[in-house]
Specification:
By secondary structure, the protein is mainly β. Helix content is about 0%, strand content about 40%. The strands form 14 sheets. A five-stranded antiparallel β-sheet has the order 1-20-17-16-15, with no helix packed on it.
Length: about 550
């Protein structure tokens, strides 16, 4: 890895530039939106406030989240250990979050010093106020519709009012600002377009201020590992200055996060997590560049966190494990460890849906019940059940289907959906509808014929980097095709893209949402002699070279 560094400046912080009444935003060298009239008011000099200073010592703290245990883990930037805590949820068995976004002290109330937001898969964004020392939480605001975006994140102050603001990017690469209002019951004003072309970056990281001018900044990484610094301006003619390349090789990290000021010099820092779970801090040098890295206190084991708050990657959601069915019909599951490996297997309860006879056909769908877990689909004659043990019957008329695939949200509403192919090769889309605790399908959409050209159709997340669910399809001759998702329920895929041949060497193909913690869809494949390989997605529609995960996998007659 190479990293451009400069001498770190000393002395007082530069003054905050300006406060905006009306904003029209641009992304520097990227396409801009229409201009809006504005007025500039010089503010008094202040230091940039951290977004994640939970203990009030002026330093940014590191917050992580585990969906399996619904637990937040807090590590203080000042050196003390921090604590674990949970938050009050309306449906404790259901509400699993796909992203966590600290937004600082929005209302200036010392009793609830830090607010953070939790994003659900269905697009519900909820703000919580925390209180020390137990970090009990109270909901202050909740809003739906945020599944429109593939990344929602907070920077520092972009508008000159001393409060962190919110940015959100669409799958098409448009970036919008939601300015803070300071009112916890309505915390953000109407959105304003920053610009387009932001889909070029696979990670967007807000940093409270890393060049010492008091304005929030933005760090962006390309899939190839180049790192760029966008200095915030608070100027309505261009919210960010043109990008400056500040390093290469940053794809060594599966997640990059904005650490705010964690070193005590008033400059925002950067955090990088490697696939093996090592966490590094890069101190900001006051110019938008970063100094030499050092390991964070408790440096190892960070792959256990499903997500780091302020991380820049598009979050993965919905299928953290795979399912194997042996010749006796027993079910075993393996969980992703977020480090390129799978856990030891766990015996799952075997479903018996037709009297004493087990189900005859399985699929393992990305989350249908909105609880963060994959859901078993089992058919038995004309009946279909979803959810595994304690499942819900989805009615009759399913006997004519030869395969089921649950790749995630194909319709753009945040709910998990299912594809079903009949014996004639006609594919149907069944949109999922989850109203806790009931799951069912909306009216199906016919996608067309010809799908019996494929002997394997799999998917569990995003392969192209836009946050939309995609699928992969293999012909018996071994040609593999990618069908990129559109989010349009009437036409959920664009034209297929060839990924090459030779895939007939595998007797099993299955999709796992994310095996290495970078948020990108991955693929598992089993050879005839039982060796399992992982293909890690690049986020650009391809895969990295395969990695062996061991032998003995031919004991399963199905891998889902």
């Amino acid at each position: 890895m190479t990293l451009n560094t400069h001498t770190r400046p000393r002395g007082r912080r530069a003054q905050r530039i300006a406060a905006c009444v009306g904003l029209a935003l641009s992304a520097g060298m990227l396409t801009t939106g229409p201009a809006v009239a504005d007025a500039m008011v010089p503010p008094s000099p202040v230091h940039a406030e951290p977004r994640s200073d939970f203990d009030g010592d002026g330093l940014g703290d590191l917050l992580s989240y585990s969906g399996a245990s619904h637990t937040f883990s807090l590590k203080y930037g000042g050196g003390s250990l921090g604590s674990d805590f949970t938050i009050n949820r309306e449906h404790p068995d259901q509400d699993v979050y796909k992203d966590i976004i600290p937004v600082g002290n929005q209302d200036g109330n010392a009793a609830g010093r830090i607010q953070f937001m939790a994003l659900s898969a269905d697009g519900t964004l909820t703000m919580y106020r925390t209180t020390q020392p137990t970090y009990t939480s109270a909901t202050t605001w909740s809003s739906g519709g945020w599944q429109e975006f593939n990344k929602v994140f907070a920077t520092g102050d972009l508008t000159g009012d001393h409060r962190p603001d919110l940015l959100a990017r669409t799958p098409d690469g448009d970036l919008y600002l939601y300015p803070s209002t300071g009112n916890l019951s309505a915390p953000f004003g109407p959105r304003l377009k920053v610009g387009s072309g932001w889909g070029a970056y696979d990670q967007l990281v807000g940093v409270s201020d890393t060049n010492g001018d008091g304005i929030g900044d933005l760090i962006a990484r390309t899939p190839g590992g180049d790192l760029y610094f966008f200095a915030g301006t608070s100027d309505p003619a261009g919210m960010f200055k043109p990008p400056i390349k500040v390093g290469t090789g940053w794809n060594a990290y599966n997640q990059i996060a904005g650490g705010d000021d964690m070193t005590g010099d008033g400059i925002g820092d950067l955090v990088g997590r490697t696939e093996d779970g090592t966490l590094y801090i890069y101190p900001g040098d006051g110019t938008g560049h970063f100094g030499d890295r050092s390991t964070f206190r408790r440096p190892y084991g960070w792959q256990e966190a499903d997500m780091l708050a302020t991380a820049g990657g598009v979050p993965a959601y919905g299928k953290p494990r795979v399912l194997g069915v042996d010749s006796q019909g027993a079910l075993y599951s393996y969980r992703s460890l977020n480090n390129g490996k799978l856990s030891d297997r766990r015996r799952d309860p075997t479903p018996y849906y037709c009297g004493t006879n087990p189900a005859t056909r399985f699929a393992f769908a990305s989350d249908l019940a909105m609880d963060g877990e994959a859901d078993l689909i089992a058919s038995c004659n004309d009946l279909l059940y979803t959810g595994g043990t304690g499942s819900q019957q989805q009615g009759f008329g399913w006997g004519g289907f030869t395969s089921f695939t649950g790749p995630g949200d194909l319709t753009g509403d945040g709910m998990g959906d299912v594809l079903a192919r009949d014996s004639a090769g006609v594919m149907y889309l069944y949109p999922g509808v989850s109203t806790y605790p009931i799951f069912h399908f909306a009216e199906r959409t016919k996608l067309g014929a010809g799908w019996n050209a494929y002997d394997a159709i799999v998917g569990a997340g995003d392969y192209t980097g836009d946050g939309r669910a995609d699928i992969l399809a293999r012909t018996p001759a071994g040609a593999l095709y990618l069908y990129p998702g559109t989010g349009n329920p009437q036409a959920p895929f664009t034209d297929r893209v060839s990924l090459g041949g030779g895939w007939q060497q595998y007797i099993r193909l299955t999709a796992i949402g994310d095996i290495n913690g970078d948020g990108k869809g991955d693929l598992l494949a089993v050879t005839s002699d039982g060796e399992l390989f992982s293909y890690q997605g690049t986020g650009t529609g391809g895969f990295r070279p395969r990695v062996s995960l061991g032998r003995g996998w031919n004991i399963y007659q199905g891998l889902y």
